[in-house]
Amino acid sequence: MDVSPNQPATPGGPLRPPGLPRTPRRRPSGEPPPLPHHLQTSGFGWLIAAVVLAVASVVVFADGWRGPGLAVTAVDTAVVGWLAGLRGPGLTGAMQALAALGSWTAITVLLWGLLAALLVLRRLRQLLVVLGAWMVLGFIAQYLLAPLVQATSLLVIALSAAVRRPRPFGVEFRGDWAG
Asked: What is the largest CA-CA distance in the chain?
């Protein structure tokens, strides 16, 4: 079989002139890649629910512990009391282990472990992305969000009411109350 200089060796058609864009590369099945994912109806529902809950918490606790904030706290205390009555073998230990995974110590150890693993495996591009995201997140939290939260008095009142939440009455704590 003779191949002319203007024809490719594969049966894909003639050579493209320089400057023409390549056709998008397909997966072996011929389907386009699954990304990017678009937000579906359920995603919009969760987004709306999150915004509604955030706005409702600010509105309910805007007056502190007066008015609707007191009623919400009473209902919350009743639910926590009911949940505290549920006991099962090994459930307390499992919940304490789960709570330990969310501690600042565990998160810091996991982050440093990730950085060490990326360095050992020579995944320098991913290491740079993680370090960059870590620095950008710190910058956003320290220089953009902190002054915004301090300047927004309504949000500060709602957050301070949530931080100084009283312990539920009549519930024995088997873990620490930090956080």
From this structure: 90
